[in-house]
Amino acid sequence: MTGRLEDSSQDRRVRVRGRPVDSCPEDGPEVERGAVHRITVVGEDVLRRRCQEVTAFGTPELSRLVDDMFATNRVARGAGLAANQIGVDLQVFVWDITDDWGVRHVGHIVNPVLDEIPAEHRRLVDESEGCLSVPGPYRVVSRPDRAVVRGRDMDGAPLVIEGRGYFARCLQHETDHLHGRLYLDRLTRRERRAALREMAEAKDEVFARRAKRAARLGT
């Protein structure tokens, strides 16, 4: 999921994997350790398959995947990134997003499952949404304003992450990815065609910006 313009002040509140912390560097240790990957683009088969569940936790391979996803998301200036967006067919996504109330949320989750939120405890919100795998266009998408996702961290510890507002949208967007769905699927046929035309015109410029940022990071 693409990010929005955010307050860059250093005194904002931060939650890492759902828990409050005193601070978190703009480029965390995962970004420093990780390698930047090419982001898959709509039309590639890996984005249309339901990803496989992770069965082995606490492995160097899983840790490296999370690091690489954070580094790739950072270079692309995303709010979140799913594993199949770097071509890996596993149920993992990461996020680094500041919500509507100025709280920065950072973390990863493995094998996520969204709770069904009763209608009386949520409302549908129409808001602009973009995707790193659909470089360029944003479109208005209707989603619930609250989300709860349950899963595990890379070491297998249980996680429950709750989001409201744009963070809730991010959690839903990334979970969709792991089920082989894109935000384009929530648009009318006409809107989808228009978004794809816009992507075709914008993608080369978007790719060039990402490459420049990756070069600055030395990756």
Could you characterize what this model shows?
Helix content is 30%, strand content 27%. Strands 1, 2, 3, 4, 5, 8 and 9 form a seven-stranded mixed beta sheet that branches. A two-stranded antiparallel sheet has the order 6-7. The chain is globular. The chain is built from four helices and nine strands. It has helices at residues 29-33, 60-76, 165-178, 189-217, and strands at residues 14-16, 19-21, 80-82, 92-98, 104-114, 124-131, 134-144, 146-152, 158-164. Mean pLDDT is 93; it is low at 5-11. With 219 residues, the chain is of the alpha+beta class. It has a single domain (14-212), classed as Peptide Deformylase (Alpha-Beta Complex).
Supply database-style keywords.
alpha+beta, 9 strands, two-stranded antiparallel sheet, Peptide Deformylase, single chain, 219 residues, 30% helix, 27% strand
Biggest β-sheet, characterized?
Answer: 7 strands, mixed
Query: In total, how many beta strands?
Result: 9
End-to-end C-alpha gap: 21 Å
| Range of helix content | 25-40%
CATH-derived topology: Peptide Deformylase
Count of individual helical segments: 4
- Per CATH, the class reads Alpha Beta
The CATH level-2 architecture is identified as: Alpha-Beta Complex
For the record, the count of structural domains works out to: 1
Low-confidence runs? 5-11
Beta-strand content: 25-35%
- Average of pLDDT: 93
The helix/strand series, from N terminus to C terminus, equals: EEHHEEEEEEEHH
